[in-house]
Amino acid sequence: MNIIIRHEISAKYPTLRNPFYTPQGATSLREGMEAWQGYYQSARPTMGKMMINIDLSATTFYEGGPLIQMVAKILGLRSPNDLRRGLSDMERQKVEKGIKNLRINDNHRPENKRKFKIEKLTQTSASDTMLDVDNSNKINVETYFQNKYRRLLYPFLPCIIARKNIHLPIEICDVIPEQRYMRKLDRDLSDKMTNFARQNPTIRANRIQTGLNILNYQNNEYLKQFGIEVSNNMAVVNARILPTPTIQYHQSSRESCVRPNCGSWNLRDKKVINGAILSSWSVLAFLSYKDLPDQAIKLFVRELITTCQDTGMNISERDPPICRANPIGDTKESLQKAWLKARDKAWGAKPQLILCILPNTGLYLYAEIKRISDTVIGIATQCIQSKHTNKPVKQYCANVCLKMNIKLGGENSFLIPEHIQFLVDEPTILMGASVTHPLSGNNEGPSYAALCSSVNVKASCYAASIRVQSHTDILTDLANMVKESLKTFYQACGLKPKKILFYRNGVSKSQFMYVLESELAAIKYACQSLEADYRPTITFVVIQKRHHTRFFPIEKKNADKSGNCLPGTVVDMDITHPFEFDFYLLSHAGLHGTSRPTYYQVLYDENGFDANRLQTLSYNLCHTYVRCTRAVSLVPPVYYARLAATRARLYSFSFCNTDTESSEGVAINFGAVKELQKVMYYI
Predict the structure, then answer these.
(1) Other CB atoms closer than 10 Å to residue 552's CB: what's the count?
(2) Multiple choice CATH, 275-408, 3.90.950.10, 3.40.50.880, 3.40.50.300, 3.40.50.2300
(3) Residue 336 confidence (pLDDT) above 70
(4) What does the pLDDT look like over 176-204, one tens digit per residue?
(5) Which ranges constitute the DSSP H helices of 100-220?
(6) Which of 118, 248, 319, 386 is in the most buried spot, having the most CB atoms within 10 Å?
(7) Helices and strands per DSSP (H, E), number in the chain
């Protein structure tokens, strides 16, 4: 069916498997690139009928047209006229990098346009690049074109080198339209693409309808030949809104129990369940005194301490030592000095935390801090951006406080027992698993697997087990990871889990059975390797966020202030699988654009879950994410596993340009976490 519905549209528009893209409404981004609106279509089996899932898509294309204009845009110039001064060597390299592998055609012979792929630029200008004519005479490109075709306007620019050592002046080349930009977007371009693709629910629904009109299924000859008819209207489906759970804070709080309003709440008048004690710590600023004076740091630290105290933490060291470091200097030495200063200030007590103030959002410095603190020194670090220290905001300090408390071994909150009945009836361990691969288009470097599992009955804290592995969606060492998790649970609360609820993230539908067979066997093997007759009941649930199903509330009373469906909206009929145990759950409140529900499919269940019981438990758990006071879109064990796998990527020395083994993409130098395994250091 997908082949049939795609066939006609793929002849008219650029198509990338299921999505197709149109130039209508394209937005110029930067350096000769533009964002195109696209439409996704895919046939799906549902209850009683086949349906077509249609949604918006967006991607980046090169702008078609004169190559000379693209060169000007790459260099940030207003027009090609600004190129008359020629290119410096650095500018030439930037242009070459930007246009390499671009497909072009020449325009100096309109009756015989040829297509080429750019390989590189000449080191010299057209006027200085020499050609062999008839293997005897040498002539420069400028003179050759003037004699044979026309006078060049930009002879001072380099030439394109294409196949068979063909030299073409930039000004006679046109970029062939509809070429997709395949490289990784930088942060600026990524933000621009996100803003382009983000649509509020009303606009998104209208644009999907526009896409349906472009598809024009009613007049599609191929659909008619197969006897397929497609409705012109979106499907109206039945949904339920699950009740909001109650969150428990410390009994001494003015408001110890809170029921979130539309997916969020705040820390005002609340104290964490178990506040950590912080008696030995220091501040490490990667900025000069001129950029961030000590007085500004002290003002921020004072506000942070006050907020932490109000929230139930005990900060006995209220004047931590302040250290300075060069952001491009020796990060390891800087962190060790901060560690020593904290120890000296606390009369020899072991330091617990280093508060790092960063000058920007650059990844390299952050990665080095985490790699060294987690795997070399063995101390928790809390990174903040310097812009937040100038005028301390209470809400920001509260969010930092939540993370600090967890990293120091505290607990923030938990759900009242009635709302996690499945967990408290019998000892139950929650597990979340995720695998992260190298970025798209980059096959270098290994994949990282993480398993995060609860360590207490109320599932308020989680331990992480991480592995580096070759490129596969299967957790290759899952048996040992599960064994570690079961031991940690037993050591923490003295109980053997009788039930395992295993949430698995990042698996495509085509891999469901393969993953289930491999990983379920690994879980069972781990249990029986601890004790031959140890057989806890297992439920294996796959979670997907990368899908194109979207919900639009029909009535205003069922919408939040962003126009999205209310948190707790669950759909388990009409558009779900005809016979498999699956559902869509929208557990979070929308902030921007159209909210994406999370898809859950139960692949194996020995715990006798009915739909409502698993949906309600999953929704309630989404209110226990420790980093914020909002319900999140994924159940926390999976969220934490993603964070831990992402953190694991920073531990590989390959990230920091050191020697690694390239065979099968597995790094040799992978730092193990030191002294932090019992706390949620990856938060």
Answers:
(1) 15
(2) 3.40.50.2300
(3) yes
(4) 999 999 988 888 899 999 999 999 999 99
(5) 141-148, 187-197, 201-215
(6) 118
(7) 16, 30
